[in-house]
Design goal:
Elements (H helix, E strand, L loop, with lengths): L2 H10 L1 H14 L3 H14 L12 H20 L4 H14 L1
Length: 95
Amino acid sequence: MKAGIGWLIRLHGRPRARRVAAAYRDIFADERQARLVLSDLAHYCRVGQSSFIAGDPHQTAFNEGARDVFLHIAEMSGVTPQDFAGLVEEVIHER
């Protein structure tokens, strides 16, 4: 079981967790739109970059929190490791 699904089940119970997971899939069902939103989120959440900021543990924690939210959204919307690599490449090439 994926970590995000396990978290949803612990938080909401199985029936609601299924509905929430389905909602993520439904929202990101249009692959073109989903890719655009997810690549934007990947850029905003600094995916593909280090979360660590030397000498600033608060900013490091903030950056890691943003990255964690992106990873949760990506997992719940069904992004595969292959898709994830493509998203990171898109972010790198958009700069």
